[in-house]
């Protein structure tokens, strides 16, 4: 069962989350493998997409936001686009588009950032937008300030959190064909202190500076422990065992885990109504051209694999005003 665990370190300005996606992640992979047009993703792509999905759940779990958090990776390698979307209630879906050959063992720099053009975009899309409101989006390169490619997704998200959210963050991610998992540790600001230690300025109050220094030491110690977590441990051990092994000397205050219907779970927001609206957006002339060429309009969802088909009668109805619509079979006259 997929699960999200939240915790804080008692008396310290440090919080954490641990996510383990099992059934939800396996459903993403199952639907992709069942798609006869695409087939399963190459293992390096599936691994990166699993890490993205775990990271997106962790980021969504950290904010109070009614809407979708969408993480996208795109660039100039064989992996053209990867998307993980998580709703505020932890419904999730993910997909990736591959063009070209993916060699075994490829990592993020080779998959996406082949010529330094790779980017990571994180979008917060409100469920109910106000008039004129646009989704918030932050974009960071897949490279450090000196231009060196970042080695993996965890480093990219840490870079994003420092640059866009001003939060010191430590992230450990891993994924295989059974589990996508992640551990996130963040340092929270103490009173009167900015989020990042680099942005602190000298103060006359020595006690306040001492408190800030102690907080940095606490975060550094806990971050070091988190980074000691091995891939096989993150994938193979349960949440209780992981947290005990890493932080047995710390006092953790744990919240009720989110599992089952309230936890991370696969769900797709596609629908026949959305596809119909898309066809209407094409215009009647173009829709009729597709019908003449293909006999029907067929649209498949990249996330869940569901196919929606519209024949000539369906398309005609889409462009017929409601008052001129013929009665539906079984309708009461």
Would you tell me the overall average pLDDT?
Answer: 85
CATH architecture of the largest domain: 3-Layer(bab) Sandwich
Question: Which class do the helix and strand fractions yield?
Answer: alpha+beta
Q: How helical, in percent, are the residues?
A: 25-40%
Parts with pLDDT < 50 across at least 5 consecutive residues: 192-204
Query: Number of DSSP helices?
Result: 10
State the assembly state of the protein chains.
single chain
Rg, Å, rounded: 23 Å
Distance between the terminal alpha carbons, to the nearest Å?
A: 49 Å
Biggest pleated-sheet summary: 6 strands, antiparallel
Remind me, CATH topology of the largest domain?
Hsp33 domain
The SSE order reads EEHHEEEHEEHEEHHHEEEHHEEH
> What gross morphology would you assign?
elongated
Q: Supply the CATH superfamily name of the largest domain.
A: Hsp33 domain
| CATH C-level category of the largest domain | Alpha Beta
Strand content: 25-35%
Number of folding domains?
2
Number of strands: 14
Give the topology.
Blueprint: E1 3-9, E2 14-21, H1 23-34, H2 43-61, E3 67-74, E4 79-87, E5 91-98, H3 108-111, E6 119-126, E7 136-141, H4 153-165, E8 169-175, E9 180-187, H5 206-227, H6 231-236, H7 239-247, E10 252-254, E11 258-259, E12 265-266, H8 272-282, H9 284-294, E13 297-300, E14 307-310, H10 312-318
Parallel strand pairs: 5-12
Antiparallel strand pairs: 1-2, 1-10, 1-11, 2-9, 3-4, 3-6, 4-5, 6-7, 8-9, 13-14
């Amino acid at each position: 069962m997929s699960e999200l665990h939240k915790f804080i370190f008692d008396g310290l300005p440090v919080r954490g989350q641990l996510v383990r996606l099992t059934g939800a992640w396996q459903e993403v992979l199952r639907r992709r493998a069942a798609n006869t047009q695409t087939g399963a993703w190459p293992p390096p792509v599936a691994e990166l997409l699993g890490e993205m999905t775990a990271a997106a759940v962790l980021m969504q779990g950290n904010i109070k936001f009614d809407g979708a958090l969408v993480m996208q990776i795109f660039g100039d390698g064989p992996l053209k686009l990867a998307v993980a979307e998580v709703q505020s209630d932890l419904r999730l879906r993910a997909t990736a588009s591959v063009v070209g050959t993916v060699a075994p063992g490829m990592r993020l720099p080779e998959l996406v950032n082949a010529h330094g053009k790779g980017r990571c975009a994180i979008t917060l899309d409100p469920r109910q937008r106000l008039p004129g409101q646009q989704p918030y989006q932050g974009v960071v390169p897949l490279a450090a300030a000196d231009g060196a490619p970042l080695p993996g997704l965890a480093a990219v998200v840490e870079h994003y959190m420092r640059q866009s959210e001003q939060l010191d963050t430590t992230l450990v991610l891993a994924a295989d064909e059974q589990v996508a998992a992640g551990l996130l540790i963040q340092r929270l600001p103490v009173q009167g202190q900015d989020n990042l230690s680099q942005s602190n300025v000298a103060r006359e109050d020595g006690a306040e500076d001492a408190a800030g220094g102690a907080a940095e030491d606490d975060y550094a110690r806990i971050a070091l422990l988190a980074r000691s977590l091995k891939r096989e441990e993150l994938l193979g051990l349960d949440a209780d065992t992981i947290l005990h092994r890493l932080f047995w000397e710390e006092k953790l205050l744990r919240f009720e885990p989110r599992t089952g219907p309230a936890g991370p779970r696969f769900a797709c927001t596609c629908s026949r109504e959305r596809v119909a609206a898309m066809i209407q957006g094409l215009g009647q002339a173009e829709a009729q051209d597709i019908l003449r060429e293909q006999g029907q309009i067929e649209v498949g969802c990249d996330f869940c694999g569901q196919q929606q088909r519209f024949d000539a009668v369906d398309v005609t109805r889409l462009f017929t005003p409601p008052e001129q619509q013929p009665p539906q079979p079984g309708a009461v006259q």
